[in-house]
Specification:
This protein is 61% helix and 4% strand. By secondary structure, the chain is mainly alpha-helical. The chain has one domain (11-172): Fumarate Reductase Cytochrome B subunit. It has a two-stranded antiparallel sheet with strand order 1-2. A hairpin with a 2-residue loop joins strand 1 and strand 2 (120-123). The radius of gyration is 18 Å and the shape is elongated. Residues 9-173 form the Cytochrome b561 bacterial/Ni-hydrogenase domain. It is found in: Cell membrane. Its cofactor is heme b. InterPro entries: Cyt_b561_bac/Ni-Hgenase, Cytochrome_b561_oxidase, Di-haem_cyt_TM.
Length: 173
């Protein structure tokens, strides 16, 4: 089943969710740079992929947003009592997931570094761009916000599974 239904999410929704979960988890390893100035296995092996993975995540979140909009009338409905809370939480997750790579690109362009992903030069190096650098300054605070949103998302999924014992988590697995 490729498309979503009222009972469960489809193959594409599940695949995008879990692929992005793994990639965002990888991105959050960047916090490890704050430990011993990144002089450890994680900082030297996984973190150098940060910009490339962030660029890939930008593509994936755009695909995911377009897909979610196309599937919005097919997707499982949240508990009516919690609908506003659920939609706001997911809306914030989508917004921050989109803003993270955008502000990351602004950091690079604003600093005059250009943008390279997976060995391809996407934006040439150039002069510093003050406004881009300023907006790019939101990248780190957004990373902390995303971490909090992810933690809340996981806690709520586990709450639904173990406390409410409903099918919420199973729909995405």
């Amino acid at each position: 089943m490729f498309q979503d239904t009222r009972q469960t999410y489809g193959t594409l929704s599940k695949s995008l969710h879990w692929l992005m979960a793994v990639l965002v988890g990888w991105q959050l390893l960047k916090f490890g740079d704050r430990i011993a100035d990144g002089e450890h296995w994680v900082g030297q092996t996984l973190v150098p992929w940060h910009i490339s993975i962030g660029t890939l995540l930008l593509v994936l979140i755009v695909i995911r947003l377009v897909w979610a909009l196309q599937q919005r009338n097919r997707r499982p409905e949240p508990d009516p009592a919690l609908r506003t809370f659920v939609k706001a939480g997911h809306g914030l997750l989508y917004a921050v997931l989109l803003l993270m790579p955008v502000t990351g690109i602004l950091v690079m362009v604003g600093g005059g570094y250009g943008l390279s992903a997976f060995g391809m030069q996407l934006i040439a190096e150039g002069e510093e761009v003050a406004w881009a650098s300023t907006l790019g300054g939101l990248h780190s605070p957004l990373a902390w916000a995303l971490t909090a949103l992810i933690a809340g998302h996981i806690v709520m999924a586990l709450f639904h599974h173990f406390v409410k014992k409903d099918e919420t988590l199973r729909r995405m697995v």
